[in-house]
Specification:
Layout: E1 3-6, H1 10-19, E2 23-31, E3 35-41, E4 47-53
């Protein structure tokens, strides 16, 4: 199981992730009707996902 974190700005979150020693493992991918998702690891190697919701998705 991978933890998913909802963010307002995926681009800014990925920038901060990399600036603080994390790594992007899956670059942003659209999820139709939902938003945009990317995956990364923190500096200790723990994987997680980041999701920017589509404003029209109602989520």
């Amino acid at each position: 199981m991978t933890a998913m974190i909802r963010v307002k700005s995926l681009a800014e979150s990925l920038r901060l992730l990399q600036a603080n020693g994390g790594m992007v493992t899956v670059h942003p991918q659209p999820v139709p009707g939902v938003g945009i998702v990317a995956y990364g690891t923190d500096p200790e190697g723990r994987e997680f996902g980041l999701m920017q919701m589509d404003p029209g998705a109602g989520g």
